[in-house]
Amino acid sequence: MPIPGPALSASIEPNATAPELIRNFCIIAHIDHGKSTLADRMLQLTGVVEARAMRAQYLDRMDIERERGITIKSQAVRMPWQVDDAAYALNMIDTPGHVDFTYEVSRSLAACEGAVLLVDAAQGIEAQTLANLYLAMENDLEIIPVLNKIDLPAAQPEKYAEEIGNLVGVDPADVLRVSGKTGEGVEALLDRIVRTVPAPVGDAGAPARAMIFDSVYDIYRGVVTYVRVVDGNLSPRERIAMMSTRATHELLEIGVISPEPNPTKGLGVGEVGYLITGVKDVRQSKVGDTVTNAAKPAAEALGGYDDPKPMVFSGLYPIDGSDYPVLREALDKLKLNDAALNYEPETSVALGFGFRVGFLGLLHLEIVRERLEREFNLDLISTAPNVIYDVELEDRTWVNVTNPSEFPGGKIRQVREPVVKATILTPSEFVGTVMQLCTDRRGSMQGMDYLSEDRVELRYTLPLAEIVFDFFDQLKSRTRGYASLDYDPTGDQEADLVKVDILLQGDKVDAFSAIVHKEKAYDYGVAMTAKLKELIPRQQFEVPIQAAVGARVIARETIRAMRKDVLAKCYGGDISRKRKLLEKQKEGKKRMKTIGSVEVPKDAFIAALSSDSGGAKDAKDKKK
Fold this sequence. Notes:
Elements: E1 22-29, H1 35-45, H2 63-68, E2 75-83, E3 86-94, H3 102-110, E4 114-120, H4 127-138, E5 142-148, H5 157-168, E6 176-177, H6 186-196, E7 209-218, E8 222-231, E9 239-242, E10 248-250, E11 253-257, E12 261-263, E13 272-276, E14 290-293, E15 312-318, H7 324-337, E16 342-348, E17 352-359, H8 362-375, E18 380-382, E19 389-393, E20 398-401, E21 412-427, H9 431-440, E22 444-452, E23 455-463, H10 464-467, H11 471-478, E24 484-495, E25 497-504, E26 507-508, E27 514-517, H12 521-535, E28 543-549, E29 552-559, H13 575-595, H14 602-609, H15 615-623
């Protein structure tokens, strides 16, 4: 490990730091390109974390982040660094790399003047590298291109430096080579940040204005708000006001994160820090809001952020119905920590009370569900994910459908589904298989470029419904893990979609309905009826399971009745006696069928509706 280099004491007096000595920057990259490891080396080199307290992925605070080796939440940290006898304060934000957490990245970029664009020297530019680069360019940030992992045997720094140079428009020799693991080149990177990232600009004499770019809930101290000061200054014990909600609070504590909370005498222009007001109501601190002084408020709020649009919807239901209030409170607290979360109450005949939750993608769904179960001790069922459809009826009225049960009956003029613009980067040998996959998923090709001799960028327009379930898994398996995917919503298109209903003994079960493309309706019907035949226990009477589109049945399975062996007492004798007994049983079964109802156990609902194939097993395990 590198020995801390030319560092200052970790406790710079933050309220005394002039704006020209502050540098705000973030690290952006594709997932698994070494952002958190590089951040670890920076923390060590600048001396803010002692060697004995150091651990891998220091800024990743959640257990899930450490287990999966991915960053989910952006983390801000203040580090001292000295260049030419001047003591600088560097505010670094470590950002997530997965496409589902782009909203976290966009908020972090708005709080910075510069961005370190990190590329793995063994893998090169990938889809999310491009997406994050374009986000940084839209925010007019100073880009510092860096090749990481140069210590790997498979690293090809010269090749990928040329690729980055062509992309960013710099000389390949100016692309920094670093190793987050060994610390090589990290000092030079910190020096480059000081010299090239512009200092923050703001009016120190104007009324205070600070942008909330993140917030978390602390069980003891209430809402902790992370801000970037743009104008004026904030001091402890003054009254502050939130400009969107008009709520006022006393500022109990103000400080910087270095990397643990460090109370100070205030925050000035360009500084990044935290505020604690003791407020327990999570709705009082809205991401994108402007904080100002209550006695001398600013006239105009800062720009804020665009609200993220959920891409995937899924129902979240507690296995124990009495946990519904706990789930509601848990979602309230999690929304403070994850501004991209959207939810509204929903009821299901099969699953009871729950919430319809909007997510930015499948990984986002998986992480939110896991956090709810771990942090709030809940047992949850998540239904299969689906997207929003717009349906136009014969009378030209439009219906917004977020759930198959909301799909209108009767005559329909058209159904519109969301589409995305997908960018896929793949080695050239897999171009054919990737094209085949996109064509199977109703994609239309928009363009193809060779980034180098052996790397191709493919651009497709694809229906979002075809991407959200297993497209990424299929892409990885067909390209041996080498392809990368990024996508952005790009509007909607008319599509030939139908609602497939599942009928048990002639009665519709809304929970099992799905909206699918007409060509795939038969496959869905056959798969779902076969699945339910396995999951629903046999009844005293025969139960038909049917899949239907409108009034037309497209698939059927039958659960055979449980029968008593009425012939057991007949030892030989006339066949008419046996026939009489069988006819009597048949009449009884027919009479029972007219008054009987099909019992569908909760395990069957969980297994059929769950977004993971092991749903039934999970539910049984949890009950044990």
